Input
Amino acid sequence: MIKENIKEILSKIPKNVQLVAVSKTYPNKDVLEAFDVNQLHFGENKVQELQLKYDELPKTLKWHFIGHLQSNKVKYLIDFIHLIHGVDKPKLLKEINKRAANIERKVDVLLQVHIADEETKFGFSEEEAKELLDNDLSKNYPWVNIKGLMGMATNTGNEAKVASEFKSLRTIFEQYKSEDFNTLSMGMTNDYKIAINEGTTMIRVGSGIFGARNY
Output
């Protein structure tokens, strides 16, 4: 089923939209089944689980950290992570820059912007994100590439509300878009079709590929 699900999603999304298969909690055999149909990008939200999968699975896989990353855990993934989605505070940005400098490896990240109506979700406010992007990031964080923005919409059946939240994130993204600042990560299993309509360049799909999770 995993292979079929990936093929079906890829057949329906624009070619410029990157599919990240959210493999958190799923076993290695599921990741390998997705890899069999050339799915290379996988998302995890727990550092320990990500480390194990990185150690045990093919090194051609590109790992995305999509959860809330604590500053004290950065050192465990800095040398192999492909993209950190949820940079939600300056302290985390500084830590990533420091750890990346230590190993002289530039690290790609996205700034997480809080667009939902839910307090439980993390992220910079729109004003904070703009303030950060208006500064000389290459001078302040020379070992970090800020590739774009990430956001999570309110978990609701109100599609107009979700679309409005995605639209607000895309508006900021378009203001700063450049050759290097080119990634807009929004849309998950339940709302990625809305996100595509609102201009996302990257979607994060878990249960839509691997089936229901067993927590």
Summary: DSSP finds nine helices and eight strands in the chain. The chain has a mean pLDDT of 95. The domain at 2-210 is CATH 3.20.20.10 (TIM Barrel). The longest strand covers residues 144-150.
